[in-house]
Amino acid sequence: MCLLHLRAKNGGINIKFNQFKMMFLAQLKLTLREKQAWFWGIFFPVILMVIFMVIFSGNSDEEFKTEVAIVDPSPNPASEMMLSQISGLPVFEVKSGKPVTRDKAEEWVKEQEVDAAIILPETAEESSVFLVVNKENEQGAAAQAVSGILDKFVQQANLLAAGASPKYDLQYESITSGTNELDYTDFLLTGMIALSIAQGGMFGMVDLVEMRRKGLIKRLRMTPANMGIFGLSDMAMRLLFSIVQIVLLSLIGVLVFGANLYINPFTLIIIFLIGALSFNALGYFFSSFSKTTEAYMGVANICSFLMMFLSGVFFPIETMPEWIQPISAVLPLTYFADGLRESMVYEAGIATASLWAGIAVMVIWGAVTFLLGSVLYKRKAIAADR
Amino acid sequence: MTVLEVRNLQKSFGSIKAVKDISFSVHAGEVFTIIGPNGAGKTTTLEMIEGLVSPDNGVIHFGDLDWNKHAVSIKKKIGVQPQSSAMFDLLTPEENLNLFASFYDDARPTEEILEIVSLTEHRKNHVKKLSGGQRQRLAIGLALISDPQIIFLDEPTTGLDPQARRNIWDIILHLKELGKTTILTTHYMEEAEKLSDRVCIVDQGNVITLDTPSALIEKLTDEREIRMSFLDGEKAAEDADRFSKELESVSKTEREGAALKIWASKPEETLLDLFKFTKENSYGVEQVSIREMSLEDVFIAFTGKEWRD
């Protein structure tokens, strides 16, 4: 009796597992055979990322350099000392490597062959250093930079001349919150991964609208199929698709564009799961009130566009106008992108407070939209009885 | 043996009473057809029986089983082909059948079902590339995968060409040979007459009448419509018209050119008299027929509505 009972129970589990397997396989085939899924899920994010990376991070490794001409009308000890020091500055590249005549230098400036000409003092007593720049380029970055650097250089020379050694000096150091540097390639790569997973969730649930429209949901309800298992297999399929997106985008980012990833796998898995589920819930919510695929795609497009530009996917939020920033602060994609950056670039552990705050925001979005969607589905199920 | 019993079903949506009072019982192995105009409550009735909609009132029994207590057992016992042939368009017939088979613990082998609905040839094509008739056959196949005792076919031939329709009739007749019970709704009177053991006409949420097709037709009237046309043109038709009006069993006539329609309660006698008349006057008869009464006439007589396909 007891044995029989056990066997029956085992049979039930086997059937459920078999159901899950068959449903998962069906979902897999449906996704693989749907050209739209390939385009929007794989091709589109890759193209978008490549375009942005080529445009914005093509020469980020090159340092700022400007070409100048130096005029030393009558060499004297003071001018020679300055000449050797200016030549030693890495940002200046002295054209032809040695001083030229003033006429020659001015001609170069006019023809914009150099960004500026520096005219050294004629005698040791003469204290003016002239800077000649092209009028058209007066406000240009190069002219400004040359003037700034020269200004600082002159100040130091003054101090030296007065016999004082500078008390303060400025040293540049960039600071990031993590252990590793974040450059634009890493920033964009993680942003694109976040965006494509988010879009996968927000657009992907269009299948539900289509299934309902065609009466497939009703059809499945006429069989003993477990709708919970159906939902689970659907979710498993989506997660698998998102993993493909992460791996593919990361490979392109690292191999083609030299992104540097320092991954904390545990944090990444947590952020990935919560983010993916939360955006799927958002898509589920859209599907609950959309009667047609067109209506669904409209809503999904608006949300996806808003988030794409307001959530720091392409550019840091800090670069946006201040009045927009509070909007970014409530969008789930902001925290998903941040979380992915923390876990894929900074190797952050799960225990940081900002990460938990981000997770909380995503969980709230996910839970609220899922509940709203469920309520709307129930209500519609009754209305759809006719 | 009764396999399905439906008693006093009622269902309202808001202020609209879709089903007012529907009762019938279905016997094992028969083809039971429900016909009625659009909005008569056919689909709502079916959906209540299929467990998709719960009735406001009334009883649905599958033998000892009812939806409140034995939902899963009933779902295993019935197979449903809904009006919208809902299936996965990007899967093949074989994959669709295998998927649906996984929902049941004792499903029929997929090859067997493909054979029954003659889709073996197309088993590897995506469903979206199938023709309307093939899709509809697959929908029936999906309903058969669990080897159900009772099969619901909701307008399986709507929109199909005559050949595809005939293929589906063959499947339904085959199911009957296998001893299955089929509950069918259709828009085609001819189909109901040909396939059904019993026909149930519903209108405005009520059962209007229920019997075998021939019994329903007999119930109508004894009167038959005789059609006759003459080789000698209008003159002959006019004379024949005048002559037949004087016959006792003729209630009414109608003439259009050389064609004459005569309604007679004793059609054999009337025909004899008519032929005697034409022979005497040596009029040539081009065509003569007695129109058979069909379910369509039954439908019109009971509902007072024209039938539209």
From TrEMBL, chain B:
InterPro entries membership: AAA+_ATPase, ABC_transporter-like_ATP-bd, ABC_transporter-like_CS, ABC_transporter_ATP-binding, P-loop_NTPase
Taxonomic placement: Bacteria, Bacillati, Bacillota, Bacilli, Bacillales
Span of domain ABC transporter: 4-229
Leader sequence residues: none
Main location: membrane
Source organism of this protein record: Cytobacillus firmus DS1
Alphabetized SMART domains for the sequence: AAA
Gene3D superfamilies, per the entry: P-loop containing nucleotide triphosphate hydrolases (3.40.50.300)
Family from the record: Belongs to the ABC transporter superfamily.
GO molecular function ontology, one term from the record: ATP hydrolysis activity
Cellular component, GO, one term: plasma membrane
Keywords for the protein's UniProt record, in alphabetical order: ATP-binding, Cell membrane, Membrane, Nucleotide-binding, Translocase, Transport
Subcellular location: Cell membrane
Superkingdom: Bacteria
SUPFAM superfamilies: P-loop containing nucleoside triphosphate hydrolases (SSF52540)
Listed name of the protein: ABC transporter
